[in-house]
Fold each of these.
Amino acid sequence: MLMLTVAASSSLLAEDGYELWMRYRLLPKSKRVAISQIVCPNPTDRHLKEAHSELKTGLESMLGYSVKVGDKLTKQDGLVIGTALSNEFIAGLNVDLRPFNDEAFVYLPTTINGKRVHVITGQDQLGVLYGAFWFLRQLQSGKPLPNKRYYSAPRYKLRLLNHWDNLNRSVERGYAGQSIWDWHKLPDYVDPRIIDYARANASIGINGTVLTNVNANAMVLRADYIQKTKAVADTLRPYGIKVYLTARFSAPIELGGLKTADPLDPQVQQWWKDKVAEIYREIHDFGGFVVKANSEGQPGPQNYGRSHAEGANMIADALALEGGILMWRAFVYDDKTPVDRAAQAYNEFKPLDGKFRSNVIVQVKNGPIDFQPREPFSPLFGALDKTPALMEVQVTKEYLGFATHLAYLGTMWQEALASPTRLRGKEKVLDTLTGIAGVSNIGSDRNWCGSHFDQANWYALGRLAWEPTLGATKVADEWARLTFGTAVAKPVVSMMIRSREAVVDYTGPLGLTHLMATGHHYGPGPWVDNLGRADWNPVYFHRGDRDGIGFDRVGAGTLKQYAPGWREIWGKPETAPENLLLWFHHVPWSYRLLSGKTVWEEMVARYTHGVSEVATMRAEWAKLKGKIDASRHLQISEFLKIQEKEAKWWRDASIPYWQSLNGLPLPKGFDVPEHSLDYYKSIFHPYAPGNTHTG
Amino acid sequence: MLMLTVAASSSLLAEDGYELWMRYRLLPKSKRVAISQIVCPNPTDRHLKEAHSELKTGLESMLGYSVKVGDKLTKQDGLVIGTALSNEFIAGLNVDLRPFNDEAFVYLPTTINGKRVHVITGQDQLGVLYGAFWFLRQLQSGKPLPNKRYYSAPRYKLRLLNHWDNLNRSVERGYAGQSIWDWHKLPDYVDPRIIDYARANASIGINGTVLTNVNANAMVLRADYIQKTKAVADTLRPYGIKVYLTARFSAPIELGGLKTADPLDPQVQQWWKDKVAEIYREIHDFGGFVVKANSEGQPGPQNYGRSHAEGANMIADALALEGGILMWRAFVYDDKTPVDRAAQAYNEFKPLDGKFRSNVIVQVKNGPIDFQPREPFSPLFGALDKTPALMEVQVTKEYLGFATHLAYLGTMWQEALASPTRLRGKEKVLDTLTGIAGVSNIGSDRNWCGSHFDQANWYALGRLAWEPTLGATKVADEWARLTFGTAVAKPVVSMMIRSREAVVDYTGPLGLTHLMATGHHYGPGPWVDNLGRADWNPVYFHRGDRDGIGFDRVGAGTLKQYAPGWREIWGKPETAPENLLLWFHHVPWSYRLLSGKTVWEEMVARYTHGVSEVATMRAEWAKLKGKIDASRHLQISEFLKIQEKEAKWWRDASIPYWQSLNGLPLPKGFDVPEHSLDYYKSIFHPYAPGNTHTG
């Protein structure tokens, strides 16, 4: 271990994950493409500076020789970059870019003045930057360059990170250290790390970031914090990343000294107009706000008897004057215990469809509850006909084992994105969206995400927001090649692809959900029944008793929120997919599944399988020793060991709890849980990370 | 900036401060010492493995060739390391080590079997490890090796870091990120960074570390946390570093379920004995506890009508059975507002002198109040005749500008250590001590301490604890050579040496103290007068009014706590040193100093001088551009800019406040403060770092 941390071994030192998927290691000779020069007239233009710098650094590092940047095309095999406006050589090619949006890029192998060239261009220089990162990625991952024109355009306009970062640098549900925004030192000192954050995001097409927690603090709108935000915005702008903030609905009271935040009050409206104007004076391309209102204690328009639409439109009107947008979260539940928590977002927002201003986007979590390892898609995606929707996914693994568990989320997001919202129509969730926002897993840890594999989830967010039909496996393969090298990509991808289903199995199989310990959500707590309101308790969600288990969402009426085809399929236990059986139905423990096993037997088998899947991942990883640098290999080995221990903890705590309800024996052939139920119930972890309410 | 952060430039990447003073850069040819091999029989022995690994890595890096480790002496210019017991070649030399303690080391250039060798030895292998680090330091700093026997032994047995780190990884008064102890992942995952922490500490002779905050949490004594602590102890042990914890006095109630923590209660006594035995079963060389009792809300023996001695002795008895020690803090103040806060530690502890068990050490802050930029030494150092004392200094800069201000503390600690406790006798503070404990400035930031220059304070703690008469300038010179290179050491040292006095000047000249803003202590707050108790308020400490300023500690009786010689000198304004004038005396604003200036004129001059000193440091630093790697140079430049801005903030806020009391005009020739007093009073920073009570 010593060697890894000592100065001399800088090549090993570097493998601490800081470089993410932009490692640019020297390519094997057979993979080196001849690039003689970078031709970039007007090299200081917006985004072009970043594009040619990155290309120069990356190419020199991968090819092993010096690559000059200049404005003359003098050699064979030059790399010509820019837009038609900035680059006369490209202008001469007359590339037709009209069908593409202004973030698209085109790669073109061709000849100019008799010289073979690679061309990267786009309508806008931002496209050139995206193309530069694509080009480097192709080389890095050992893939051949296309031999004809290749173009790529993002599917969505909004490809966002949501940081749940507080002004004291704690991160709600963050497992990777502190917030990368060091508000105390801003604006005078901007950590150079923020440039690397921008590079990483631009490399995967992310074009916006919400700096602050949805549980918002009005202070961030104070004049000195606007200066701090401006310093971040100025640093991110060259990489095409816009800055957004969360707006606390009661800010006019807390910051403005008003007596109310009522959206129909003219003083309140004026306060928001003035505040928005103040922000845009400093940050001309400010993106807008995210608002969490009337949810989990946050203030909102309902405090004044107004609707979500009235609240949203008031702030949206202020933003519209400056070109900003408002993302209004649909994750709401009021202060009465509902028949079904899963039904609330729809119940609140469906009646408001069509009542929002055109610059309001409703931000909807992928599933109807809360980022669980498996949920069906939210019914709002099929129900908002007149209101644009943004899908919110959680990159940070609040419910999937924090940083130490390997759980690749690409498969989960693909499942949501590919869901048909109407079974007989063609529309899929992805067709209803204007974008994707991912709750960031980024922090001050050296490896950014708390674990090396969690970098894959950041990567997948960007790639799937750019191209949602790319497929989780393809994304995993790209990432594995860039991060660990092409030689080991296959086994790494195999681990990644099975990883999320393993978590589903060891935490909540067959559509069970929300069974974790209170507050921090670390470890199992299916027995919890004493929280402040019924729908915070796991027992509310699983409805287990002596006779059966599962939430009857047919009886609760929730199924009606989905389109008719879904009502038929999900409405009967026999036709519902088994992986959502207990989400939609309460069935007897003796209910038989297709396998011939009872629900109880299948649950025990799944819990056990989840644990054994982690053991398999450990074994697969162990085989890669020596094929991956020792430092990352060791850390991942140790994390997988923790994951196996904690998977077993979930299994061994859950099984005796269900037995305490159903009185059934352990099916034959399965290991008896290691400890008693009382033992597992007594486990108490007050300082588990990510819980900023108590931390 | 881009180049600094990009993968390819690994040599630049490395200069992010992570390597501390152990950079081991290739030496210029003229400075390379010929070392042909490392001769270390029994290379896996305790501490020897770490010694030869570090030597191999360091030498190879500095000399530019491979250096083998073996058990045969085969070449000229070998480096022979070990103890007489572990190394036959050294046994043959018959080095007389009896006069030295078992942490000392000896370096010896000699011949063995006709071959020129360098020998590093000691009575114990820990001495060999210390010698190895000394040897590497000599080479790194471009100094010649001694041409005859050289030995070095630590002056104090206890050379400790105190981490004020909480179990949720927040750090009280920490300005360098989160705690390096990741309790959540321990014991299963130990960050390799902890090995580098151990290396850094061993390199400067630190031999113990208190992992947890003095504002203690009983939870750290729970069985699972003992396993976590054991994992840290196991990692630090090879480097000669013992682990200590803070013990919450009420732990028998909170953890043990007892009804009382009364030290005379047999059940309480038994609980501590059992708990200590449990710890030692897991960590055989556990160091012991630090206790903060009956101070700032912490529970203690006085809750049960018992004395500090009764409380301390009860826990000390439990530790004595296992060989542990108890460090009992003298930083106490009870719940009544005292005539003089500065008098309290003495008032409480002087009467208890001689009543403590032999394994109790009273831990006394260097000054009588609280780590202010300047205080006289604590009177307890001259008063505890029968009780061992440990000096507690604050490495983290709670009162000296957090991480962004450059303030080298070696000069401050030297001032305390060199203070004669009796003016006519010879005894100095340093003669009364058993050790030094420094409140850590270490965190998860890449550069460990939040700023590059703050690394010097960690370094100085170790070096002065080893050799307290070394002198702050010598220590600064060592550090500057190791950290920035020999070529720039002179100007760097010049900045360091003037830096602390600059802070004194711009925050509280002439012996003023405790004038900072509430809670986080960021920025000026001399006007604060509304806190929960009188002696929390700056106005309590400065006693300024229309007529004069300063705390009359003669009238308060506090001066009597010092020896007679001091009473005479400090007792009169004419003989008291001007830099402590207002600490001991309340004088009229018109009081004339030696310079001929009035106190008011001198105060304004000092505030102004403090700011100009920072401007001078900035100018000196600017001249080093190009002589220091760009990355560190830039960060330090930006921090110095912040320091100048904040020094001016202190000056411009303080001067109008004093004018609001004394009604005097600004002396001629001085700049008018930039804003009004009301402006400065309105500044409000709720999220300044380090304040874990509110953070």
Amino acid sequence: MNQLEKYEDSIGYSFRDRSLLVRALTHRSAGAPHNERLEFLGDAVLELVISGFLFDRFGNVDEGDLSRMRSTLVRETTLAEIAHSFSLGDYLNMGPGEQRSGGFRRDSILADAVEATIGAIYLDTGEQLETVRDLLGKWFSERLKTIRPGIGQKDPKTRLQEYLQAREFHVPVYAVVDVSGQQNSQVFKVSCSVEPLSQIVFGTGTSKRRAEQDAAEHVLEILRKSNGNRK
Amino acid sequence: MNQLEKYEDSIGYSFRDRSLLVRALTHRSAGAPHNERLEFLGDAVLELVISGFLFDRFGNVDEGDLSRMRSTLVRETTLAEIAHSFSLGDYLNMGPGEQRSGGFRRDSILADAVEATIGAIYLDTGEQLETVRDLLGKWFSERLKTIRPGIGQKDPKTRLQEYLQAREFHVPVYAVVDVSGQQNSQVFKVSCSVEPLSQIVFGTGTSKRRAEQDAAEHVLEILRKSNGNRK
């Protein structure tokens, strides 16, 4: 089996149009045609198929819990785990720079390639959902079995802490810098500083905890973007 | 024609299962079963179908421009316009409180009901995309004809200003409250105060403009949430 066949074997799908698969596995650092357009499409396919699974499976769960479960299932770390289960990093086409800097191990790049793969399968099957639905049912089967409303979705502070620990940085430092507003409509402002960012990031909320979660969310966003820019 | 038939007539689809349509048109203020779960599903259907339209139509446009065009097409104000073209407000089931407070005119409620309608059609057609694709092609035909990469997507400051003006509030007030960081990695912190919010909201960015956009985005988010809570 060649490389592409090995990857097809591990994802459980053989492409009619191999050029779609090649593109899905091509990071922009390797030049065009790369996988970013397929990622755009695949991201939306993934969202809908997972939404459908959750909608059908949890008939009495409200929209808020469905959304939280969906973000747990489609977020970068989950997709990177799935990428690892396919050894996706072994099949990625990247520029020499990314190769050296270990881009094939970076969560964001792996997660993007999983979404691009989904987009490629969707196109290869004539923009129908059946095949993608079957495949994602397998890829996510364990997670779909175990996910429950109200659990599984980690809050921003937890995700930030895990992000930093995974990269051997210190834990974030939070501090209340301002409390304003009337007694029953107080607004807390919290600063959050983390090792990899030179800037201090702020969050606001109607409680100290909410303000910290808000700040953590912003930090995660900034870290995501700076990862993106490093592409 | 009864009310439901009139609505079916204006959206161009007749339901096999009318109870899905009734639910799609039932705001939570009217009690369960309401349309929030259908909205969760319909939102994802809409994202994918619009993504597919843009992907197919703009073969050489990069993922960033595709995303910007998609957010222009699926954002609340666009969906509210589509709702008005269906006179959706006339068919909404709402609690007496919402009726009196004019909820049937509120963009967020109208946009949610459009997404719920899309979710209902998707379920009514056996979770296939063909019918929804045809319908959305009609609903969005003018917008799909005129949208172009790099235009159409309004930035947060513009959207915030329009949001406030539409509700006859004063324009937002921005002020730089902090500049930190090294010369070539400066971080600006900007405050934004708007009439309908008691709190001052902050934004950060590597330029004054970016920080203002960030602050405006947060304000829009808070306003969206508080609209949600008022439901």
